[in-house]
Write a structure and sequence with these properties.
The protein is mainly alpha-helical. 48% of the residues lie in helices and 10% in strands.
Length: 105
């Protein structure tokens, strides 16, 4: 026997799954966008994690730098991959947060 209460419960369950699925897709989209553009994304779950995320952002802003590159390839319109490798004076590998590439113009 089907009752109205069962229908409401089913609707709530479906809505929760849809919201969870939407959240996962949004997280994946933001993560991909950050990776493709050389950024970072944070998903703090509480005030402690939010404070840590803010500290990381401040650190990143303090440590940023800019460099320019002029390609000798005159062909325009192609995607060019960028790879940046950093090694400290002590020989340790460091991570640079950079875009994956650029469109030649």
């Amino acid at each position: 026997m089907w009752r109205a209460g069962n229908q409401r419960s089913l609707m709530r369950s479906t809505t929760k799954r849809t919201r969870a699925g939407n959240r996962q897709r949004a997280i994946q989209l933001l993560t991909t966008l950050a990776e493709e553009t050389g950024g970072r994304v944070f998903f703090p779950r509480d005030n402690s994690e939010l404070g840590h995320s803010i500290a990381q952002i401040v650190h990143d802003l303090d440590a940023q730098f800019q460099f320019n590159y002029q390609s000798s390839n005159a062909v325009k319109g192609n995607f060019r991959k960028v790879e940046v490798k950093l090694i400290s004076p002590a020989g340790e590998n460091r991570k640079a947060i950079v875009p994956r590439g650029y469109e030649a113009q």
